[in-house]
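Example with several molecule types.
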Amino acid sequence: MHIDITKRKGERVEFSDASLTRIKELRANLPEGKHKSAIIQVLHMAQSELGGWLSIETMDYVAEVLDITPIEVYEVATFYTMFHLDKTGKYVLEVCRTGPCMLVGSDKLIEHIENKLNIKVGETTADEMFTLKTVECLGACGYGPMLQCQYKNYEFLTPEKVDDLLQAMRNGNLETYQP
Amino acid sequence: MKGRKLLIENANISGIESFEIYQKYGGYRAVDKALKSMSPDDVVEEVKKSGLRGRGGAGFPTGLKWSFLAKPEGIPRYLVCNADESEPGTFKDRYLMEHIPHLLIEGMILSSYALGANLSFIYIRGEFMWILQILEKAIAEAYNKGYLGKNIKGSGYHLDLRVLPGGGAYICGEETALIESLEGKRGNPRIKPPFPAVKGLWGCPTVVNNVESIAAVVPIVNEGGDSYAAIGIGRSTGTKLISACGNVARPGVYEIELGVSVEEFIYGDEYCRGIANGKKLKACVPGGSSVPILPHYLVTKTASGEDRLMTYESLADGGFATGSMLGSGGFIVFDEDQCIVRNTWNFARFYAHESCGQCSPCREGTGWMEKVLYRLEHGNGNIRDIDLLAEINKKIEGNTICPLGDAAAWPVAAAIRHFREEFEWHVTSREEALLRNYGLSKEPVTV
Amino acid sequence: MVKVTIDDVEIEVEVGTSILNAARKIGGEVVPPAMCYYSKLESSGGKCRTCLVEVAAGSAADPRPMPKLVASCSTPVADGMVIRNKTSDRVRENRAGVVEFLLINHPLDCPICDQAGECHLQDLGYEHGKAKTRYEEDRRTFDPIDIGDKIKLHMNRCILCYRCVHAADQLTDQRGHGIINRGEHAEISTYIEKAIDNDFSGNVIDVCPVGALTDKTFRFKSRVWFLKPMEGERTCTQCSGKAVLWMFGNEIYRVTARKDQYGEVEDIDGKTAWICNDCRFEKKDVSKWTITGPRVVDRHSVISQGKYETKMNTKIKRIN
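Resulting structure tokens for the full complex:
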């Protein structure tokens, strides 16, 4: 089960000036010497801004920015499931599979997406457009089945709605998608 | 029973997420009142009088929890709001924060004032990033209007409020794991003692309260603790947000007066409006995935034939043998076509996935149960596996660092207790079990 | 000082003492086994749950029993507390459960494991475990890896006691390894497979209760019970220079710190005698050491059996 570390290497990347200012602000908002508390927030920023996943280089960079050791970042990043440690597609579809969503058909939804994209859970499409993941409860139990993508919830999904959503993502006009 | 709403009455007013509209509808009255005419201890006293019990699941009296907070000189104390809502079936805090964020902020100001905290935190699960933005906007407004920051409304009290996100970990809903995560570490629950009230965030005395508990402090201060306590039955006072999901006709978040009957909640027009698609009720998990499942014949009536009510006591009537818990208010309903084994496996998988991996009974036990249940559900089980499961969960329950072990053990134990026949059928009729569901369980003949 | 009773034995200990340390003061069979607690490492303990005990009376002031079994390593005593360890069926039963949990994913590779003979999990399984496994699933597996050229990590054998993490935090300049992933996938790792390079990093081997971290300079050289443990000393600028030399004939096969009956590195002159990597890995030549005498190994019977302890005792008796 050891990780193929070669696949987790990435390019050396850096935050934009705006983000660095934001991180400074985050640190200033915390008591003196407690800047490590900003780590999860900064990892979210890194993942969003620096390629959609956290390569070893990105994590080392986060460690540098926060003045902590790399292992502290690895420990945290591998604990929390929102952080992707392997390269992902442009859109990571995270479908909730937990009880309440299962009761209203998440299993079928997952199967539908697998067939539609011709990938299994955990895989990325050949065009690197989509990665399909299943996740545990996202706190949308009354609005299932649902998926989350780029911090946005898509709820009360049906196969038709998912097809529309995927099409909108593919066409690069996500804003036209009507839930 | 008249359905008074103390928290989300105004949630659907257009623009209520803004400071102006919220204030127009009576918002921040409680802060004005408390800072002008109440001492911090007065606020604590009202909360004690209200009988408010922690709305995150454990139901521990909030006022009592506050009174445990150590207050050594010269050391800061912290209030942390637990907005890491992730118990399957629960989506009530999300609703409150999304629709009426200023209610939480007002509650945070009141509670921080009561506890003498000058820096408070809201820890929100990372998957609610858009709500974090809603909260940050509302906080900025409150700073602008002088309700946060230095010398709030000329009272001399100052408070800073910050929101920090999680990164995807159910375990961070456990208060010491939450504190670890706030400190920027892995969400490993701490070994207790010491408790957070003595040594919490950065080693300082800390109170961690659920979103709904903190929001409830607003009506308590406005109307007085006695008036809050007048709602409800016995030790179940006030109102509670219940998030209904699964196979109900109208899933959603409902604010109920504690004491509404379960029958009315499931079938009433004001609430869930019955089972979806005209099907029959098979089972119900009334308080979030970790509480024991109840078979249909124990949902609306207790074992002794009394009406089951939505209160801490009535839902627990019969203990774990025939009762369950109000828990977090995540009300999950199963129709006749649902498979209990599949659902039990699903929940077991959830807990195995969310175990932090620190202590051996939970790390190893949750994974073991998941694997055995997977086999049972997929036609590879043996009869002895059912007893093995019961054995494993007895060895997990009570032996772990934090309550996740219990939360993982209880659903499995309860499912086997009430639906053993359905488990056995998955072994004796393997092929059939792969093709169809078992259906309703028979009510045991009581003697 | 407070008075507590453990398995019907009364003892007075200082306020704030843990139940486990109170039991260690009594010694013998009332001492609960501990796999993760390590008195010389701050904030260790609480995780493995093997030291669970029953508190039959909380204190003299509040004599109610505690509803759950408690981890004795991290629960402080109270005056008048009554504790049951070996006299409690509940403890025995649940401890057997914990041992079972620790073993379900542990490989049965004792015959090729360097730790065999001095492995705390072997002892624990022998004393508190069950004869058969009920685990029918696939065991979790990892590939063994090198963390540096001197230390081997067999994650399969790890019980996630966190001792090595605390040791690296507290004994070395900068911790290079830690716990990654979570739940049953949690593992000890450097993540990027980099070498741990630090003068005191070798101590992670000594604190490891199982064969997860082993000394590569000793790997497969000999079973520990074929070796003679001798106390050796040398002048070292980095550490106490007081160690145990594991010898065969006149050859040093491996060097470890001196450990007490609980497997913890001993205090010498008021300081925990951790040893440096130079003494541990580089000084295998007998001429580098002054051998002061045989090491009495009293806990791990398989090592001491038929060796110094008994022979010494006979000798002493004869002299007398």
